[in-house]
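mind reviewing both lines:
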Amino acid sequence: MINPLIRGLSPVVQFILFLGILFICAIIGAGAAMGVGSVFFNLPLEELPQMISDPQSKHAQALIWMNNTTQLFSFLLPALLFYVLLGSKILHPLLKNTGGIMLLFAPVLILFANGLIDLSSKINHVLIPVGSSLEAMVKPSEELAEKLSHIFLNDESGVSIWLLVFSMAIVPAISEELVFRGILQPLFARMTRNIHVGIWTSAFVFSVIHMQFYGFLPRLFLGAILGYLVIWSGSLWTAVFAHFVNNALAVVMYKTYGSLETPEDAALSQWYGYLISGLVFAGLVVWFIRHSKWPWMSFEYLGIVENKIKSASDQKLNI
């Protein structure tokens, strides 16, 4: 009885419902993360807030598992709950379809997008002037996020490469894609009747929610690419796989260069690197568009068919 009731709600109401589920799960997740730190790592509850605000390498294991708990409760759990409630006609086909050959080309697209992503990062830094009030507002959260990443990735922390890949690539790829490309993107598209607005709006929320504004433009661009991968392939797994490869490469880059930023002397940071990666990226985009499943899934994705059936049913009742 629940599923038909939820399905009959408008996209706006479904969006509000999902926000409520997200909020409740985030609160539960925060408590669960504290419980993990206290029960499994014998950390006093009263010291956990200070440990989170000023993380240290000696607490790396506890912090990474607390972060995993927060991710799973804040993203994966609400997505699964919403999927159960909605019995969605959109999400199920996206999960059922593997994406075919596009699944293999998705991480390649992300790889060659890195030149443009790196360039957007440089533009992003210019947009936050040194010494400005904007810098004062966004820098603390940025420094905390960077410090936490370095603690996880630093060899002195003792975190194994397998745990790093699980925590920084597998968990975010699955949980975040279910939320942003699996649920929010279709809802935004249905609310606006425009797939491009849906993609860029979900990418915007995806970037904002990370609270790392020095990487706002790169993450916005990445989120949009992942969104287009979903509608081109008709599969959520292309975005999940591409997201996983992107994050896993970041782990490898840090282990190789000691930084998440592309080295200034690397070929990718030179003008010819940007040119080559941009041309290959554009060619891959053309290939994806030519093989896109979007024209055939657009009506169902935007809920047009569902609304037409409902309208026709209402007309019969009026007669």
